[in-house]
Amino acid sequence: MSKAVGAAVVRNKVKRRLRHLVRDRLDRLPAGSLVVVRALPGAGTAEYDQLARDLDAALARLLGGAPKGCNPTGAVTDGGCAAGPGKPGRDPGGSAQ
């Protein structure tokens, strides 16, 4: 983890948070998968819930879900969303699978 994330205490906190978040989501990945999670500089100041949302969005993109720019609920975050709410093939409630 880069020192840009923060001091050693902050980096370790982010590492523990991400490890816990990934552990809860391992069942979504195909057996034998190898995943690398890279913490960007903003992770040091992000709240736990924000890290969870960002990880969920990244896993959704990885597993063929929402394209970049869409969060798991289908709301547009920084661009167009190919499968947003009300579009075919997308659960309008945004429920997790």
Features:
97 residues; mainly alpha; 2 helices; 34% helix; 0% strand; elongated; disordered C terminus
If you had to describe this structure to a student in words, what would you say it looks like?
This protein has 97 residues and is mainly alpha-helical. Helix content is 34%, strand content 0%. It contains 2 helices and no strands. The chain has helices at 8-25, 48-62. It starts with 7 loop residues before the first helix and ends in a 35-residue tail after the last helix.
What is the β-strand count?
0
* Number of continuous helical runs: 2
Instruction: Give the overall form.
Output: elongated
Oligomer: single chain
Mean pLDDT: 75
Strand portion, in percent? under 5%
Q: Give the ordered list of helices and strands.
A: HH
| Proportion of residues in helical segments | 25-40%
Any low-confidence stretches, pLDDT <50, length ≥5? 72-97
Kindly name the structural category: mainly alpha
Largest sheet: none
Query: Could you tell me how far the N terminus lies from the C terminus, measured between alpha carbons in angstroms?
Result: 30 Å
Instruction: Provide the gyration radius in Å.
Output: 15 Å
